[in-house]
Automatic annotation (TrEMBL), chain A:
GO biological process, one term: phosphate ion transmembrane transport
Protein name: Phosphate transport system permease protein PstA
Originating organism: Fulvimonas soli
InterPro entries: MetI-like (IPR000515), MetI-like_sf (IPR035906), Phosphate_PstA (IPR005672), Phosphate_transprt_permease (IPR051408)
PANTHER family: PHOSPHATE TRANSPORT SYSTEM PERMEASE PROTEIN PSTA (PTHR42922:SF1)
Automatic annotation (TrEMBL), chain B:
Name recorded for this polypeptide: Phosphate transport system permease protein
One Pfam family of this chain: BPD_transp_1
Gene3D superfamilies tied to this protein: MetI-like
Family of the protein in this entry: Belongs to the binding-protein-dependent transport system permease family. CysTW subfamily.
PANTHER family recorded: PHOSPHATE TRANSPORT SYSTEM PERMEASE PROTEIN PST, PHOSPHATE TRANSPORT SYSTEM PERMEASE PROTEIN PSTC
UniProt organism field: Fulvimonas soli
SUPFAM superfamilies on file: MetI-like
Ranges for domain ABC transmembrane type-1: 83-325
Length: 290, 338
Protein backbone atom coordinates (compact mmCIF):
# COMPACT_ATOMS: atom_id res chain seq x y z
CA UNK A 1 0.00 0.00 0.00
CA UNK A 2 2.71 2.46 1.05
CA UNK A 3 4.75 1.90 -2.09
CA UNK A 4 1.68 2.37 -4.24
CA UNK A 5 1.02 5.68 -2.62
CA UNK A 6 4.66 6.77 -3.08
CA UNK A 7 4.60 5.71 -6.70
CA UNK A 8 1.41 7.62 -7.38
CA UNK A 9 2.76 10.67 -5.61
CA UNK A 10 5.95 10.62 -7.69
CA UNK A 11 3.93 10.26 -10.87
CA UNK A 12 1.67 13.12 -9.85
CA UNK A 13 4.61 15.37 -8.99
CA UNK A 14 6.22 14.54 -12.31
CA UNK A 15 3.06 15.24 -14.28
CA UNK A 16 2.51 18.48 -12.41
CA UNK A 17 6.09 19.66 -12.95
CA UNK A 18 6.02 18.88 -16.65
CA UNK A 19 2.66 20.58 -17.04
CA UNK A 20 3.97 23.65 -15.23
CA UNK A 21 7.06 23.75 -17.44
CA UNK A 22 4.86 23.61 -20.54
CA UNK A 23 2.76 26.36 -19.03
CA UNK A 24 5.89 28.47 -18.42
CA UNK A 25 6.84 28.11 -22.07
CA UNK A 26 3.35 29.11 -23.13
CA UNK A 27 3.55 32.16 -20.84
CA UNK A 28 6.85 33.20 -22.46
CA UNK A 29 5.51 32.68 -25.98
CA UNK A 30 2.29 34.43 -24.98
CA UNK A 31 4.12 37.57 -23.91
CA UNK A 32 6.13 37.50 -27.16
CA UNK A 33 2.95 37.23 -29.21
CA UNK A 34 1.21 39.91 -27.14
CA UNK A 35 4.04 42.42 -27.53
CA UNK A 36 4.56 41.77 -31.24
CA UNK A 37 0.84 41.76 -31.94
CA UNK A 38 0.24 45.12 -30.24
CA UNK A 39 3.26 46.66 -31.94
CA UNK A 40 2.02 45.44 -35.33
CA UNK A 41 -1.59 46.42 -34.72
CA UNK A 42 -0.97 49.89 -33.32
CA UNK A 43 1.97 50.52 -35.64
CA UNK A 44 0.21 49.57 -38.86
CA UNK A 45 -2.84 51.60 -37.85
CA UNK A 46 -0.58 54.64 -37.51
CA UNK A 47 1.42 54.10 -40.69
CA UNK A 48 1.16 57.03 -43.05
CA UNK A 49 3.20 58.46 -45.87
CA UNK A 50 3.84 61.68 -43.97
CA UNK A 51 5.76 59.60 -41.45
CA UNK A 52 8.56 59.46 -43.98
CA UNK A 53 8.19 62.92 -45.53
CA UNK A 54 7.53 65.31 -42.64
CA UNK A 55 9.72 66.19 -39.72
CA UNK A 56 8.91 66.16 -36.01
CA UNK A 57 8.75 69.96 -35.84
CA UNK A 58 5.12 69.74 -36.98
CA UNK A 59 4.27 67.79 -33.85
CA UNK A 60 1.02 65.84 -34.20
CA UNK A 61 0.74 66.79 -37.88
CA UNK A 62 4.32 65.86 -38.55
CA UNK A 63 6.18 62.68 -39.30
CA UNK A 64 9.37 61.06 -38.19
CA UNK A 65 11.60 61.80 -41.20
CA UNK A 66 14.30 63.62 -39.26
CA UNK A 67 14.28 60.96 -36.54
CA UNK A 68 14.74 58.21 -39.13
CA UNK A 69 17.62 60.06 -40.78
CA UNK A 70 19.09 60.76 -37.36
CA UNK A 71 18.83 57.11 -36.37
CA UNK A 72 20.52 56.02 -39.59
CA UNK A 73 23.35 58.53 -39.17
CA UNK A 74 23.93 57.77 -35.47
CA UNK A 75 23.72 53.99 -35.94
CA UNK A 76 26.07 54.18 -38.94
CA UNK A 77 28.55 56.24 -36.90
CA UNK A 78 28.33 53.78 -34.05
CA UNK A 79 28.98 50.80 -36.32
CA UNK A 80 31.74 52.59 -38.26
CA UNK A 81 33.55 53.37 -35.01
CA UNK A 82 32.97 50.03 -33.32
CA UNK A 83 33.62 47.65 -36.22
CA UNK A 84 37.34 48.25 -36.88
CA UNK A 85 38.15 48.50 -33.16
CA UNK A 86 36.01 45.51 -32.27
CA UNK A 87 37.32 43.30 -35.06
CA UNK A 88 40.96 44.11 -34.26
CA UNK A 89 40.39 43.63 -30.54
CA UNK A 90 38.67 40.31 -31.21
CA UNK A 91 41.58 39.28 -33.44
CA UNK A 92 43.99 40.10 -30.63
CA UNK A 93 42.03 37.96 -28.19
CA UNK A 94 41.85 35.01 -30.58
CA UNK A 95 45.25 35.18 -32.27
CA UNK A 96 47.69 36.94 -29.97
CA UNK A 97 46.44 36.49 -26.45
CA UNK A 98 44.30 33.38 -26.58
CA UNK A 99 45.67 31.76 -23.45
CA UNK A 100 47.50 34.63 -21.80
CA UNK A 101 46.36 36.10 -18.52
CA UNK A 102 45.75 39.58 -19.98
CA UNK A 103 43.79 38.10 -22.86
CA UNK A 104 41.60 36.05 -20.55
CA UNK A 105 40.97 39.09 -18.34
CA UNK A 106 39.96 41.26 -21.28
CA UNK A 107 37.72 38.55 -22.66
CA UNK A 108 36.12 38.36 -19.23
CA UNK A 109 35.72 42.14 -18.92
CA UNK A 110 34.32 42.31 -22.44
CA UNK A 111 31.56 39.95 -21.35
CA UNK A 112 30.79 42.32 -18.49
CA UNK A 113 30.77 45.35 -20.79
CA UNK A 114 28.29 43.39 -22.91
CA UNK A 115 25.64 43.65 -20.21
CA UNK A 116 26.74 46.89 -18.54
CA UNK A 117 23.92 49.42 -18.10
CA UNK A 118 23.74 51.48 -21.26
CA UNK A 119 22.64 54.58 -19.41
CA UNK A 120 25.94 54.69 -17.52
CA UNK A 121 27.85 54.34 -20.80
CA UNK A 122 25.78 57.28 -22.06
CA UNK A 123 26.85 59.37 -19.08
CA UNK A 124 30.46 58.33 -19.71
CA UNK A 125 30.26 59.61 -23.29
CA UNK A 126 28.51 62.74 -22.03
CA UNK A 127 31.56 63.34 -19.84
CA UNK A 128 34.25 62.59 -22.42
CA UNK A 129 32.62 63.96 -25.60
CA UNK A 130 29.78 66.38 -24.85
CA UNK A 131 31.42 68.29 -22.00
CA UNK A 132 34.81 68.79 -23.72
CA UNK A 133 33.21 69.77 -27.04
CA UNK A 134 31.06 72.30 -25.19
CA UNK A 135 34.13 73.75 -23.53
CA UNK A 136 36.27 73.77 -26.69
CA UNK A 137 33.67 75.40 -28.94
CA UNK A 138 32.39 77.80 -26.26
CA UNK A 139 28.99 76.18 -26.35
CA UNK A 140 28.56 76.12 -30.13
CA UNK A 141 28.71 72.34 -30.23
CA UNK A 142 27.18 70.67 -27.24
CA UNK A 143 25.12 67.54 -27.80
CA UNK A 144 25.80 65.98 -31.18
CA UNK A 145 25.00 63.03 -33.39
CA UNK A 146 28.67 62.14 -33.18
CA UNK A 147 28.50 61.86 -29.40
CA UNK A 148 25.47 59.60 -29.85
CA UNK A 149 27.49 57.52 -32.31
CA UNK A 150 30.33 57.16 -29.81
CA UNK A 151 27.87 56.06 -27.12
CA UNK A 152 26.33 53.46 -29.42
CA UNK A 153 29.81 52.34 -30.48
CA UNK A 154 30.56 51.52 -26.84
CA UNK A 155 27.47 49.32 -26.78
CA UNK A 156 28.24 47.68 -30.13
CA UNK A 157 31.93 47.13 -29.32
CA UNK A 158 31.63 44.14 -26.93
CA UNK A 159 29.21 42.36 -29.30
CA UNK A 160 31.66 42.66 -32.19
CA UNK A 161 34.68 41.75 -30.05
CA UNK A 162 33.00 38.64 -28.77
CA UNK A 163 31.73 37.31 -32.10
CA UNK A 164 35.03 38.06 -33.87
CA UNK A 165 36.94 36.32 -31.10
CA UNK A 166 34.67 33.28 -31.19
CA UNK A 167 34.56 33.06 -34.97
CA UNK A 168 38.34 33.32 -35.36
CA UNK A 169 38.86 30.61 -32.77
CA UNK A 170 36.61 28.35 -34.84
CA UNK A 171 38.96 28.62 -37.83
CA UNK A 172 40.95 25.37 -38.00
CA UNK A 173 44.52 25.81 -36.81
CA UNK A 174 45.81 23.86 -39.84
CA UNK A 175 45.02 26.97 -41.86
CA UNK A 176 47.31 29.02 -39.60
CA UNK A 177 50.07 26.45 -39.71
CA UNK A 178 49.90 26.16 -43.49
CA UNK A 179 50.13 29.92 -43.92
CA UNK A 180 52.91 30.38 -41.36
CA UNK A 181 54.95 27.56 -42.89
CA UNK A 182 54.94 29.52 -46.15
CA UNK A 183 56.61 32.36 -44.28
CA UNK A 184 53.63 34.72 -44.25
CA UNK A 185 53.86 37.32 -41.47
CA UNK A 186 51.23 37.08 -38.81
CA UNK A 187 49.51 40.35 -39.65
CA UNK A 188 48.96 39.18 -43.21
CA UNK A 189 47.76 35.81 -41.96
CA UNK A 190 45.28 37.51 -39.62
CA UNK A 191 43.94 40.10 -42.02
CA UNK A 192 43.99 38.25 -45.31
CA UNK A 193 43.43 34.61 -44.43
CA UNK A 194 41.76 34.20 -41.04
CA UNK A 195 39.46 37.20 -41.39
CA UNK A 196 38.40 35.91 -44.78
CA UNK A 197 37.71 32.45 -43.41
CA UNK A 198 35.66 33.92 -40.56
CA UNK A 199 34.10 36.66 -42.64
CA UNK A 200 30.44 35.69 -42.48
CA UNK A 201 30.67 35.10 -38.74
CA UNK A 202 32.18 38.53 -38.24
CA UNK A 203 29.51 40.11 -40.44
CA UNK A 204 26.89 38.39 -38.31
CA UNK A 205 28.44 39.97 -35.24
CA UNK A 206 28.30 43.41 -36.82
CA UNK A 207 24.67 42.91 -37.82
CA UNK A 208 23.79 41.74 -34.31
CA UNK A 209 25.53 44.79 -32.90
CA UNK A 210 23.54 46.99 -35.28
CA UNK A 211 20.31 45.32 -34.16
CA UNK A 212 21.31 45.92 -30.55
CA UNK A 213 22.09 49.61 -30.94
CA UNK A 214 19.24 50.55 -33.26
CA UNK A 215 16.78 50.18 -30.39
CA UNK A 216 18.97 51.87 -27.77
CA UNK A 217 17.42 54.94 -26.22
CA UNK A 218 18.89 55.73 -22.84
CA UNK A 219 22.43 56.76 -23.85
CA UNK A 220 21.12 58.97 -26.67
CA UNK A 221 19.11 61.17 -24.31
CA UNK A 222 22.22 63.00 -23.15
CA UNK A 223 24.52 62.56 -26.12
CA UNK A 224 22.57 63.18 -29.36
CA UNK A 225 19.80 64.84 -27.33
CA UNK A 226 17.20 65.34 -30.09
CA UNK A 227 16.40 67.88 -32.76
CA UNK A 228 13.04 68.76 -34.27
CA UNK A 229 14.55 69.69 -37.61
CA UNK A 230 16.22 67.69 -40.33
CA UNK A 231 19.99 67.59 -40.11
CA UNK A 232 22.71 65.50 -41.68
CA UNK A 233 25.48 67.19 -39.75
CA UNK A 234 26.83 64.83 -37.11
CA UNK A 235 28.15 67.79 -35.11
CA UNK A 236 24.60 69.03 -34.67
CA UNK A 237 22.05 67.85 -32.14
CA UNK A 238 20.23 64.94 -33.69
CA UNK A 239 17.01 63.12 -33.00
CA UNK A 240 16.63 59.38 -33.34
CA UNK A 241 13.62 57.10 -33.56
CA UNK A 242 13.89 55.63 -30.03
CA UNK A 243 14.36 59.07 -28.50
CA UNK A 244 11.32 60.47 -30.36
CA UNK A 245 9.27 57.42 -29.33
CA UNK A 246 10.23 58.08 -25.72
CA UNK A 247 9.34 61.74 -26.02
CA UNK A 248 6.02 61.18 -27.81
CA UNK A 249 4.91 58.32 -25.56
CA UNK A 250 5.23 60.64 -22.56
CA UNK A 251 3.16 63.29 -24.34
CA UNK A 252 -0.53 63.36 -23.36
CA UNK A 253 -1.84 63.66 -26.95
CA UNK A 254 -3.31 60.62 -28.71
CA UNK A 255 -1.93 61.71 -32.09
CA UNK A 256 1.56 61.72 -30.55
CA UNK A 257 0.99 58.22 -29.19
CA UNK A 258 0.03 57.05 -32.69
CA UNK A 259 3.28 58.49 -34.04
CA UNK A 260 5.19 56.79 -31.24
CA UNK A 261 3.58 53.45 -32.16
CA UNK A 262 4.47 54.00 -35.80
CA UNK A 263 8.07 54.64 -34.76
CA UNK A 264 8.03 51.56 -32.54
CA UNK A 265 6.75 49.51 -35.46
CA UNK A 266 9.55 50.76 -37.74
CA UNK A 267 12.23 50.06 -35.11
CA UNK A 268 10.86 46.58 -34.34
CA UNK A 269 10.66 45.63 -38.02
CA UNK A 270 14.21 46.86 -38.57
CA UNK A 271 15.56 44.90 -35.60
CA UNK A 272 13.69 41.70 -36.49
CA UNK A 273 14.81 41.98 -40.12
CA UNK A 274 18.42 42.39 -38.98
CA UNK A 275 18.32 39.35 -36.74
CA UNK A 276 16.76 37.34 -39.57
CA UNK A 277 19.44 38.47 -42.04
CA UNK A 278 22.23 37.73 -39.56
CA UNK A 279 20.86 34.21 -39.07
CA UNK A 280 20.79 33.72 -42.83
CA UNK A 281 24.39 34.93 -43.19
CA UNK A 282 25.50 32.55 -40.47
CA UNK A 283 23.59 29.53 -41.80
CA UNK A 284 24.98 30.13 -45.30
CA UNK A 285 28.42 30.11 -43.74
CA UNK A 286 27.74 26.82 -42.01
CA UNK A 287 26.60 25.20 -45.22
CA UNK A 288 29.71 26.30 -47.10
CA UNK A 289 31.97 24.82 -44.44
CA UNK A 290 30.35 21.40 -44.38
CA UNK B 1 69.98 36.82 -66.79
CA UNK B 2 71.91 35.32 -63.93
CA UNK B 3 70.50 34.92 -60.46
CA UNK B 4 71.81 37.40 -57.86
CA UNK B 5 74.82 36.35 -55.83
CA UNK B 6 74.01 34.37 -52.73
CA UNK B 7 75.10 37.16 -50.40
CA UNK B 8 72.66 39.65 -51.95
CA UNK B 9 69.79 37.16 -51.82
CA UNK B 10 70.57 36.52 -48.19
CA UNK B 11 70.45 40.17 -47.30
CA UNK B 12 67.22 40.64 -49.28
CA UNK B 13 65.61 37.82 -47.38
CA UNK B 14 67.01 39.20 -44.17
CA UNK B 15 65.64 42.66 -44.92
CA UNK B 16 62.33 41.18 -45.69
CA UNK B 17 62.11 39.12 -42.54
CA UNK B 18 63.20 42.10 -40.49
CA UNK B 19 60.47 44.17 -42.10
CA UNK B 20 57.93 41.45 -41.45
CA UNK B 21 59.00 41.20 -37.84
CA UNK B 22 58.64 44.97 -37.42
CA UNK B 23 55.23 45.00 -39.09
CA UNK B 24 54.13 42.11 -36.93
CA UNK B 25 55.18 43.95 -33.81
CA UNK B 26 53.35 47.12 -34.86
CA UNK B 27 50.29 45.13 -35.81
CA UNK B 28 50.35 43.34 -32.47
CA UNK B 29 50.51 46.67 -30.64
CA UNK B 30 47.64 48.05 -32.70
CA UNK B 31 45.50 45.02 -31.86
CA UNK B 32 46.45 45.15 -28.22
CA UNK B 33 45.56 48.83 -28.13
CA UNK B 34 42.11 48.08 -29.51
CA UNK B 35 41.59 45.32 -26.97
CA UNK B 36 42.68 47.60 -24.14
CA UNK B 37 39.92 50.01 -25.19
CA UNK B 38 37.47 47.51 -23.67
CA UNK B 39 39.26 47.91 -20.37
CA UNK B 40 39.37 51.68 -20.87
CA UNK B 41 35.61 51.80 -21.48
CA UNK B 42 34.85 50.06 -18.20
CA UNK B 43 37.36 52.05 -16.18
CA UNK B 44 36.29 55.24 -17.93
CA UNK B 45 32.63 54.70 -17.20
CA UNK B 46 33.38 54.14 -13.53
CA UNK B 47 35.82 57.04 -13.41
CA UNK B 48 33.62 59.51 -15.28
CA UNK B 49 30.59 58.89 -13.09
CA UNK B 50 32.68 59.00 -9.90
CA UNK B 51 34.25 62.26 -11.08
CA UNK B 52 30.85 63.68 -12.04
CA UNK B 53 29.42 62.64 -8.69
CA UNK B 54 32.24 64.00 -6.55
CA UNK B 55 30.23 67.08 -5.47
CA UNK B 56 27.34 64.94 -4.33
CA UNK B 57 29.60 62.50 -2.48
CA UNK B 58 31.57 65.40 -1.03
CA UNK B 59 28.48 67.32 0.09
CA UNK B 60 26.42 64.48 1.52
CA UNK B 61 29.07 61.90 2.35
CA UNK B 62 27.73 58.55 3.50
CA UNK B 63 24.44 60.24 4.21
CA UNK B 64 23.83 60.19 0.45
CA UNK B 65 23.23 56.45 0.64
CA UNK B 66 20.82 56.54 3.57
CA UNK B 67 18.79 59.66 2.87
CA UNK B 68 15.40 59.30 1.25
CA UNK B 69 15.18 62.99 0.37
CA UNK B 70 15.25 64.00 -3.28
CA UNK B 71 14.35 67.63 -3.27
CA UNK B 72 15.60 69.85 -6.11
CA UNK B 73 13.83 72.81 -4.44
CA UNK B 74 16.11 72.70 -1.41
CA UNK B 75 19.00 71.10 -3.31
CA UNK B 76 19.07 68.05 -1.02
CA UNK B 77 19.55 64.62 -2.55
CA UNK B 78 19.72 61.08 -1.27
CA UNK B 79 20.01 57.78 -3.08
CA UNK B 80 17.74 55.66 -0.91
CA UNK B 81 14.51 55.93 -2.93
CA UNK B 82 16.00 55.16 -6.36
CA UNK B 83 18.23 52.43 -4.91
CA UNK B 84 15.23 50.88 -3.16
CA UNK B 85 13.19 51.06 -6.37
CA UNK B 86 15.97 49.47 -8.40
CA UNK B 87 16.47 46.63 -5.95
CA UNK B 88 12.77 45.91 -5.39
CA UNK B 89 11.84 45.91 -9.10
CA UNK B 90 14.80 43.64 -9.88
CA UNK B 91 13.96 41.24 -7.05
CA UNK B 92 10.32 41.02 -8.20
CA UNK B 93 11.57 40.43 -11.74
CA UNK B 94 13.78 37.55 -10.57
CA UNK B 95 11.07 36.03 -8.38
CA UNK B 96 8.90 35.75 -11.48
CA UNK B 97 11.56 35.13 -14.11
CA UNK B 98 13.59 32.39 -12.40
CA UNK B 99 10.82 29.78 -12.06
CA UNK B 100 9.42 30.61 -15.49
CA UNK B 101 12.87 30.42 -17.09
CA UNK B 102 13.54 27.12 -15.36
CA UNK B 103 10.24 25.84 -16.69
CA UNK B 104 11.09 26.96 -20.21
CA UNK B 105 14.56 25.42 -20.05
CA UNK B 106 13.12 22.18 -18.68
CA UNK B 107 10.48 22.12 -21.39
CA UNK B 108 13.02 22.75 -24.12
CA UNK B 109 15.55 20.21 -22.90
CA UNK B 110 13.35 17.38 -21.56
CA UNK B 111 9.67 17.76 -22.39
CA UNK B 112 9.18 19.16 -25.88
CA UNK B 113 9.30 16.87 -28.91
CA UNK B 114 12.58 17.29 -30.80
CA UNK B 115 11.08 19.03 -33.80
CA UNK B 116 9.53 21.71 -31.61
CA UNK B 117 12.66 22.62 -29.65
CA UNK B 118 14.51 24.81 -32.11
CA UNK B 119 11.52 26.92 -33.20
CA UNK B 120 10.35 27.50 -29.64
CA UNK B 121 13.88 28.32 -28.46
CA UNK B 122 14.28 30.78 -31.35
CA UNK B 123 10.97 32.41 -30.47
CA UNK B 124 11.99 32.83 -26.84
CA UNK B 125 15.31 34.28 -27.98
CA UNK B 126 13.39 36.71 -30.18
CA UNK B 127 12.01 38.12 -26.94
CA UNK B 128 15.57 39.12 -26.04
CA UNK B 129 15.99 40.93 -29.35
CA UNK B 130 13.03 43.26 -28.90
CA UNK B 131 14.37 46.71 -27.97
CA UNK B 132 13.63 47.87 -24.46
CA UNK B 133 11.80 50.94 -25.74
CA UNK B 134 9.21 48.59 -27.28
CA UNK B 135 8.78 46.88 -23.91
CA UNK B 136 8.31 50.37 -22.49
CA UNK B 137 5.61 51.29 -25.02
CA UNK B 138 3.82 48.00 -24.53
CA UNK B 139 4.12 48.30 -20.77
CA UNK B 140 2.82 51.86 -20.68
CA UNK B 141 -0.06 51.64 -23.15
CA UNK B 142 -1.08 48.00 -23.03
CA UNK B 143 0.11 46.20 -19.93
CA UNK B 144 -0.30 48.94 -17.29
CA UNK B 145 -3.98 49.59 -18.14
CA UNK B 146 -4.58 45.83 -18.29
CA UNK B 147 -2.88 45.46 -14.92
CA UNK B 148 -4.92 48.30 -13.40
CA UNK B 149 -8.17 46.82 -14.62
CA UNK B 150 -7.75 43.08 -14.13
CA UNK B 151 -4.93 42.31 -11.70
CA UNK B 152 -4.61 45.24 -9.36
CA UNK B 153 -8.19 45.18 -7.99
CA UNK B 154 -7.55 41.61 -6.84
CA UNK B 155 -4.48 42.69 -4.85
CA UNK B 156 -6.03 45.80 -3.35
CA UNK B 157 -9.29 44.21 -2.29
CA UNK B 158 -8.02 40.81 -1.09
CA UNK B 159 -4.55 41.68 0.23
CA UNK B 160 -4.25 45.44 0.63
CA UNK B 161 -5.00 47.61 3.66
CA UNK B 162 -6.78 50.26 1.58
CA UNK B 163 -9.53 48.39 -0.29
CA UNK B 164 -12.01 50.35 -2.38
CA UNK B 165 -15.04 49.26 -0.36
CA UNK B 166 -13.31 49.96 2.96
CA UNK B 167 -13.61 46.37 4.19
CA UNK B 168 -10.29 44.91 5.29
CA UNK B 169 -9.72 41.38 4.07
CA UNK B 170 -8.70 38.68 6.51
CA UNK B 171 -5.15 38.57 5.11
CA UNK B 172 -4.68 42.32 5.40
CA UNK B 173 -5.98 42.31 8.95
CA UNK B 174 -4.04 39.32 10.26
CA UNK B 175 -0.81 38.85 8.31
CA UNK B 176 1.77 41.51 9.06
CA UNK B 177 3.19 43.63 6.21
CA UNK B 178 1.02 42.14 3.47
CA UNK B 179 -1.59 44.85 3.85
CA UNK B 180 1.03 47.55 3.50
CA UNK B 181 2.65 45.82 0.50
CA UNK B 182 -0.56 45.78 -1.48
CA UNK B 183 -2.43 48.79 -0.17
CA UNK B 184 -2.63 51.89 -2.34
CA UNK B 185 -4.74 54.91 -3.23
CA UNK B 186 -2.95 55.30 -6.53
CA UNK B 187 -5.46 54.72 -9.34
CA UNK B 188 -3.13 53.94 -12.27
CA UNK B 189 -1.47 50.78 -13.48
CA UNK B 190 2.10 52.03 -13.34
CA UNK B 191 4.02 51.05 -10.24
CA UNK B 192 6.72 48.94 -8.69
CA UNK B 193 4.99 45.61 -9.27
CA UNK B 194 4.14 46.46 -12.90
CA UNK B 195 7.76 47.41 -13.55
CA UNK B 196 8.88 44.17 -11.92
CA UNK B 197 6.62 42.12 -14.19
CA UNK B 198 7.77 43.92 -17.36
CA UNK B 199 11.39 43.44 -16.25
CA UNK B 200 10.68 39.76 -15.67
CA UNK B 201 9.49 39.36 -19.26
CA UNK B 202 12.65 41.11 -20.42
CA UNK B 203 15.10 38.91 -18.49
CA UNK B 204 13.31 35.58 -19.03
CA UNK B 205 14.99 34.99 -22.43
CA UNK B 206 18.45 35.67 -20.95
CA UNK B 207 18.05 33.36 -17.97
CA UNK B 208 16.25 30.61 -19.86
CA UNK B 209 18.78 30.52 -22.70
CA UNK B 210 21.68 30.18 -20.20
CA UNK B 211 19.79 27.45 -18.34
CA UNK B 212 18.95 25.61 -21.54
CA UNK B 213 22.53 25.77 -22.72
CA UNK B 214 23.98 24.43 -19.50
CA UNK B 215 21.30 21.76 -19.14
CA UNK B 216 22.51 20.38 -22.44
CA UNK B 217 26.03 20.02 -21.07
CA UNK B 218 24.94 17.43 -18.51
CA UNK B 219 26.45 14.09 -19.58
CA UNK B 220 23.79 11.81 -21.03
CA UNK B 221 25.30 8.92 -19.03
CA UNK B 222 24.35 10.63 -15.76
CA UNK B 223 20.78 11.19 -16.82
CA UNK B 224 20.40 7.73 -18.26
CA UNK B 225 21.72 6.15 -15.08
CA UNK B 226 19.05 7.97 -13.14
CA UNK B 227 16.36 6.93 -15.59
CA UNK B 228 17.59 3.36 -15.37
CA UNK B 229 17.09 3.48 -11.61
CA UNK B 230 13.49 4.45 -12.25
CA UNK B 231 13.57 8.23 -11.85
CA UNK B 232 10.88 10.33 -13.40
CA UNK B 233 11.71 13.17 -15.77
CA UNK B 234 11.14 15.68 -13.01
CA UNK B 235 13.40 13.79 -10.60
CA UNK B 236 16.17 13.72 -13.20
CA UNK B 237 15.79 17.45 -13.76
CA UNK B 238 15.65 18.35 -10.08
CA UNK B 239 18.11 15.85 -8.57
CA UNK B 240 20.59 15.29 -11.42
CA UNK B 241 20.54 18.14 -13.93
CA UNK B 242 20.10 21.03 -11.52
CA UNK B 243 22.81 20.02 -9.00
CA UNK B 244 25.24 19.32 -11.85
CA UNK B 245 24.69 22.76 -13.39
CA UNK B 246 24.11 24.66 -10.15
CA UNK B 247 26.90 27.22 -10.47
CA UNK B 248 26.04 28.05 -14.07
CA UNK B 249 22.36 28.33 -13.26
CA UNK B 250 23.18 30.80 -10.49
CA UNK B 251 25.43 32.59 -12.99
CA UNK B 252 22.54 32.84 -15.44
CA UNK B 253 20.28 34.24 -12.71
CA UNK B 254 22.88 36.85 -11.81
CA UNK B 255 23.22 37.71 -15.49
CA UNK B 256 19.49 38.37 -15.54
CA UNK B 257 19.81 40.39 -12.34
CA UNK B 258 22.54 42.52 -13.94
CA UNK B 259 20.25 43.20 -16.87
CA UNK B 260 17.32 44.04 -14.64
CA UNK B 261 19.30 46.43 -12.44
CA UNK B 262 20.56 48.50 -15.35
CA UNK B 263 17.47 48.44 -17.54
CA UNK B 264 16.30 51.97 -18.20
CA UNK B 265 13.61 52.51 -20.77
CA UNK B 266 11.10 49.78 -19.96
CA UNK B 267 11.25 50.68 -16.28
CA UNK B 268 11.04 54.43 -16.85
CA UNK B 269 7.79 53.97 -18.74
CA UNK B 270 5.97 51.83 -16.18
CA UNK B 271 7.41 52.80 -12.81
CA UNK B 272 5.41 56.01 -12.41
CA UNK B 273 8.46 58.03 -11.38
CA UNK B 274 7.58 59.18 -7.91
CA UNK B 275 10.60 59.91 -5.74
CA UNK B 276 8.89 58.99 -2.51
CA UNK B 277 9.47 56.02 -0.31
CA UNK B 278 6.38 53.83 -0.10
CA UNK B 279 6.10 50.30 1.24
CA UNK B 280 3.36 49.46 -1.27
CA UNK B 281 4.28 47.52 -4.40
CA UNK B 282 1.32 49.06 -6.18
CA UNK B 283 2.49 52.62 -5.64
CA UNK B 284 4.67 54.38 -8.21
CA UNK B 285 8.39 54.47 -7.48
CA UNK B 286 11.67 55.38 -9.10
CA UNK B 287 14.77 53.46 -10.04
CA UNK B 288 18.31 54.75 -10.47
CA UNK B 289 18.14 54.48 -14.24
CA UNK B 290 14.67 56.02 -14.53
CA UNK B 291 15.66 58.95 -12.31
CA UNK B 292 18.70 59.64 -14.46
CA UNK B 293 16.73 59.34 -17.71
CA UNK B 294 14.03 61.68 -16.42
CA UNK B 295 16.11 64.36 -14.80
CA UNK B 296 19.58 64.49 -16.28
CA UNK B 297 18.85 66.74 -19.28
CA UNK B 298 17.35 69.45 -17.11
CA UNK B 299 19.60 69.05 -14.09
CA UNK B 300 22.45 71.33 -13.13
CA UNK B 301 24.88 71.76 -10.28
CA UNK B 302 24.43 69.50 -7.30
CA UNK B 303 21.43 67.70 -8.83
CA UNK B 304 23.48 66.71 -11.89
CA UNK B 305 26.29 65.59 -9.63
CA UNK B 306 23.87 63.52 -7.55
CA UNK B 307 22.59 61.83 -10.71
CA UNK B 308 26.17 61.03 -11.68
CA UNK B 309 26.73 59.63 -8.20
CA UNK B 310 23.63 57.44 -8.65
CA UNK B 311 25.05 56.23 -11.97
CA UNK B 312 28.31 55.36 -10.22
CA UNK B 313 26.46 53.32 -7.60
CA UNK B 314 24.51 51.53 -10.33
CA UNK B 315 27.66 50.80 -12.28
CA UNK B 316 29.53 49.41 -9.29
CA UNK B 317 26.63 47.21 -8.22
CA UNK B 318 25.96 45.83 -11.72
CA UNK B 319 29.69 45.29 -12.21
CA UNK B 320 29.86 43.16 -9.08
CA UNK B 321 26.69 41.25 -10.00
CA UNK B 322 27.95 40.57 -13.52
CA UNK B 323 31.37 39.61 -12.19
CA UNK B 324 29.78 37.00 -9.94
CA UNK B 325 27.62 35.85 -12.86
CA UNK B 326 30.59 35.31 -15.17
CA UNK B 327 32.66 33.61 -12.49
CA UNK B 328 29.84 31.18 -11.73
CA UNK B 329 29.33 30.49 -15.43
CA UNK B 330 33.05 29.83 -15.84
CA UNK B 331 33.06 27.27 -13.08
CA UNK B 332 30.92 24.92 -15.12
CA UNK B 333 33.04 25.56 -18.21
CA UNK B 334 36.15 24.58 -16.23
CA UNK B 335 34.43 21.46 -14.96
CA UNK B 336 33.93 20.43 -18.55
CA UNK B 337 37.57 21.08 -19.25
CA UNK B 338 36.79 23.72 -21.82
Amino acid sequence: MATDWLYLRRRAVNALALALSTLATLVGLGFLAWILWETLRQGIAALDLKLFTRITAYGADGGLANAMVGSLVIDALGILIATPIGVLAGAWLAEYANRTRLGESIRFLNDILLSAPSIVLGLFVYTIVVLPSTALTHGNTTFSGLAGGVALALIALPVIVRTTDEMLRLVPSTLREAALSLGIPQWKLTLQILMRAARSGIITGVLLALARISGETAPLLFTAFGNNYMTFNPLDKMSSLPQVIYQYANDPGDAMHALAWAGAFVVTMFVLLLSLVSRLVLSRNKVSHD
Amino acid sequence: MSSPPAAVADSLAEQRSRRDARDDRLFGWLLKGCALLVLAALLGAAGATLWGGRHAFGTFGWHFLTSSAWDPGNDVYGALVPVYGTVVTSVIALLIAVPVSFGIALYLSEVAPAWLRTPVASAIELLAGIPSIIYGMWGLFIFAPFFAEHIKPFFTSYLGDKPDDGKLSWVAAHVPFVGKLFGTDYPFGAGVLTAGIVLAVMVIPFISSVMREVFQTVPTRLKESAYALGSSTWEVAWDIVLPYTRSAVIGGIFLGLGRALGETMAVTFVLGNALELSPSLLDPGASIASTIANQFSEAAGLQKSSLMALAFLLFVVTFIVLLVARLMLRRLAHKEGR
